[in-house]
Amino acid sequence: MADDIGAQLAALDFAAVSPAEFARLVKGLSAQQIKELASDAALRERVLREVFGRMKQQFKPESAGPLDALIRWKITGIDDAVYETRIADGRCEVTEGRSDAEPRTTLVLADADFLKLVSGNANPVTMFMMRKLKIAGDVGLASGLTRYFDIPKA
């Protein structure tokens, strides 16, 4: 079954998939299926790049106000993928990789948990309480991150 879904996802043009469609796709997958799909390094990289690439478009500057913060994301799986989100001056910039800058908060999640979170299919507070989401640094900032982005609901 994961092979069929994997083949469908591998052929998918992620740029043509709306955030709501992506949320529905993720909702239909179990954590185990996502873990199996994420074992394909090329597919995992494509999905992560697309998700982080969309953060800029999903950003709600009116909600961020004067916020100035660097958020580091560490997604664990076959290897660790690191992305950074800089929110400042009403803008959101995303970079791949770890910079030398000190983040205000760092979020650590497994592949499946990350996809469930960014697609609106998981509650960040519940994830934190269940230790599926680890936070270092400013927990208050981390707990409010969802209000700065237009997160689809599946």
Describe the 3D structure.
Pfam families: SCP2. It comes from Streptomyces solicathayae. The chain has 154 residues and is of the alpha+beta class. The chain has a single domain, classed as Nonspecific Lipid-transfer Protein, Chain A. 45% of the residues lie in helices and 21% in strands. It is built from eight helices and five strands. A five-stranded mixed sheet has the order 3-2-1-4-5. Helix 1 crosses helix 3 and helix 3 crosses helix 6. It is globular and about 45 Å long. The two termini are 22 Å apart. The model has no long low-confidence stretch (mean pLDDT 89).
Fourth CATH level, the homologous superfamily: SCP2 sterol-binding domain
Question: Can you name the CATH architecture?
Answer: 2-Layer Sandwich
Strand arrangement in the largest pleated sheet: 3-2-1-4-5
Whole-angstrom Rg: 15 Å
Terminal Cα span: 22 Å
Tell me, what's the shape? globular
| Strand-residue proportion | 15-25%
What profile does the largest beta sheet have? 5 strands, mixed
Structural class: alpha+beta
Give the averaged pLDDT, no decimals: 89
**Tally of structural domains:** 1
Pfam families: SCP2 (PF02036)
Protein name: SCP2 sterol-binding domain-containing protein
InterPro entries: SCP2_sterol-bd_dom, SCP2_sterol-bd_dom_sf
